[in-house]
Each structure stands twice: as structure tokens, then as C-alpha cells.
Write a structure and sequence with these properties.
Chains A, B: One of its GO terms (molecular function) is metal ion binding. Two copies of one chain form a homodimer. Chain A contains three helices and nine strands; from the N terminus they run βαββββαβαβββ. Chain A starts with a strand and ends with a strand. In chain A, strands 1, 2, 3, 4, 5, 6, 7, 8 and 9 form a nine-stranded mixed β-sheet that branches. In chain A, a hairpin with a 4-residue loop joins strand 4 and strand 5. The longest helix of chain A is centred in the first third of the chain and has 11 residues. The radius of gyration of chain A is 15 Å and the shape is globular. At the A-B interface, strand 1, helix 1 and strand 6 of A face strand 1, helix 1 and strand 6 of B.
């Protein structure tokens, strides 16, 4: 069911410093910062040959990653995103097997303009999993 | 400098259950368990179309992931591995920029039979980074 690893998301406190680290120290290609007020984050995409790393900086105190950064002041891997061909079929299959879908259970439009869902970390090896329609 | 995302490693307490989750619930292709006594772990590879997830179960109390699982009893993402063309050149470039290389600083042979190094999480957005010679 799951397909490509779409991205690994790393929450960071200082997006400019983290972008410079990936660009200058690790020598990767990075995007301009992309504010996403509807998701409460500003994102920089680190473009690797086979996938992306996304650096997420909280936008405001209500940001979904603000609490994560309180617990992890150095930053850290926040979630991992797998692509699926049919997000509603994937959701129904997962729910039938007892996995918990976060929020209302209805897909929202994610950072790439496609429907996404998040799955409960306790059901997936302590890892917050995002599913994105391929 | 960094190239492909070689793998994302997830530490788990129960490798059989986590393998079944990725195979049966998430519908991914998984390998047989591969004991790696020299690294203190047993590994299952989850083969995605563009990269791998590695499920790591500690082998013995001295395992490098045992402490991580004490702090994260549900499991969690342990490290992320980027490929580099020349691991010694990469190491020297990183050290010259002030990044800390873990251990002796000399590459060891990793899980895929290639030289690897680990970088200090505090220097890389709170993320333990493995570099592997491509």
C-alpha cells in the first residue's frame, strides 16, 4: 500500500540557521522559505536526489510543532510521510485494522496541495506518520 | 555534498510486531530479520520504491539503541542516513566547519558493508545523522 517516502520533516527553532546548515555545511540544494499559515509553519525544502527533507519552523505559539520544540529544544525529526495511491482506501484499510487516524479522519490539503492524513504515533512504532495522496 | 537519503532508521522494541505492521497494515515489502551482532541490532529492511526504512531491534543490553528505547518506549526515529561520494572528504569538510563526528572519527563498516560515520545530533537540528559512502 505505501509507496514512495515523500519526505522526512525536521522541526527546527531557527529556520535560517538550519537552512544554512543544510546548504553550506551539508552541501544540499535548498528552497526559499515558504510560509504556510494554514499549517502554522514556514517550510524549507531540502531537495535530495530521491526524496526531500522538510525543515519546519513554527509560525506562532499555536503552531502544531511548538510543543514538539518545547520537548526537543534542539529540534528533531517530527514526522515521516509516505505516499499512497488512494488516501480514502488507505484510511479505511488502516481503520479496519485498528489504527487511529488523527483529527476528524477526513483528509486535509497538505503542504504540496494534495490530500493528507496523519496516523497516531503509538500505532506506528512511536513515529508520527503522514500519508499523502500520490 | 550529501546525496540520496539512504534510509530512515526506526528503533523498535518488538521487531516481529513492527515488521508485521509494515508488511500487513501498511502493505510494504519487508526483508527477513538480519542479525548484526557487530552493531548490536537486528534489522528488517522495509523496501520503498525510492529508499528504505530500517527497523532496528536491540540485541542485548549493550545495544546502542537500548538507551534510546528506554527514553522512547513506543520506539521512534533513531537516525537518518545520507549518502556521500567520499566519506573522508565529507568528514574533513564537516570538521573544518566545526561539526562533531562521533566516536573515533574514523569510518566503520556499516550495515550495508560500506564505510559510515555518525554526526552529533546537536550540530544537526537535533537529528542523529549517519553518512554512508555511496
Amino acid at each position: 500500500m505505501i509507496g514512495r517516502l515523500n519526505h522526512v520533516a525536521i522541526a527546527v527553532k531557527d529556520l535560517a540557521a538550519s537552512t544554512a546548515l543544510y546548504r553550506d555545511t551539508l552541501g544540499a540544494r535548498v528552497s526559499q522559505p515558504l510560509p504556510q499559515p494554514e499549517h502554522g509553519v514556514t517550510v524549507v525544502f531540502v531537495e535530495l536526489p530521491n526524496t526531500k527533507v522538510e525543515l519546519l519552523e513554527p509560525m506562532g505559539a499555536d503552531s502544531p510543532i511548538a510543543k514538539f520544540l518545547e520537548r526537543n529544544p534542539d529540534g528533531g525529526i517530527h514526522h515521516i510521510c509516505y505516499e499512497v495511491d488512494d488516501i480514502l482506501a488507505a484510511r479505511d484499510r488502516l481503520k479496519a485494522q485498528g489504527a487511529r487516524v488523527l483529527g476528524s479522519g477526513e483528509p486535509r490539503i497538505g503542504a504540496h496541495g494534495k490530500p493528507v492524513l496523519f496516523l497516531h504515533p503509538k500505532d506506528f512504532c512511536g513515529t508520527l506518520v503522514e500519508l499523502e495522496q500520490a
